[in-house]
Amino acid sequence: MAYFASAGLLGGGPDYLAAQCNLRAVIFEYTLADTYETVFANILASTAMAPTDFTNSATGNDILCTIGQTVDTYADAAETSSHIAYLDTVGEEVILVLPEDSLISIGVGDQIIFPESTLTWHQPTGA
């Protein structure tokens, strides 16, 4: 199952995600060759995001990015979900695509809940 992190995210880490992401979406399909337009067309359900929805903290050498917005939304299309995508709709950038391996069948109008989640950036330790 493909997943993706943009160059901006790899260089800027969780601060970049918080600053640039303005849409979180469930998408039904993703390959590494997909463009922003393809990913956007594959959205089953989405919710708007703002920098205040992201909280960064440190634990040891790791940086945690907690995405605290829990949102109920409704599906606009029917498919089997496979990924969660974080997008910048202003810059038309796919920032991050995560595998969503539960492969849930979603119908038009089905309720979708985006729970609070945490992403971890593992930082190297000094030798």
Could you explain how this protein is built, in words?
With 127 residues, the protein is α+β, with helices and mostly antiparallel strands. The chain has one domain. The chain is 16% helix and 43% strand. The chain has 2 helices and 12 strands. The strands form 4 sheets. A 5-stranded antiparallel β-sheet has the order 1-9-8-2-3. A hairpin with a 2-residue loop joins strand 4 (54-59) and strand 5. The protein is globular.
Task: Record the SSE blueprint.
Elements: E1 4-5, H1 7-20, E2 23-27, H2 36-41, E3 43-48, E4 54-59, E5 62-67, E6 71-74, E7 79-80, E8 83-88, E9 93-99, E10 105-106, E11 111-114, E12 117-121
Antiparallel strand pairs: 1-9, 2-3, 2-8, 4-5, 5-12, 6-11, 7-10, 8-9
User: In percent terms, what proportion of residues is strand?
Assistant: 35-45%
Mean pLDDT: 87
- Evaluate the radius of gyration: 15 Å
Strand arrangement across the biggest beta sheet: 1-9-8-2-3
SSE order: EHEHEEEEEEEEEE
Task: State the helical fraction.
Answer: 10-25%
Q: How many H/I helices?
A: 2
- Compute the number of strand runs: 12
Largest sheet: 5 strands, antiparallel
Structural class computed from helices and strand pairing:
alpha+beta
Structural domains: how many: 1
Q: Span between N and C termini?
A: 34 Å
Parts with pLDDT < 50 across at least 5 consecutive residues: none
Net shape: globular
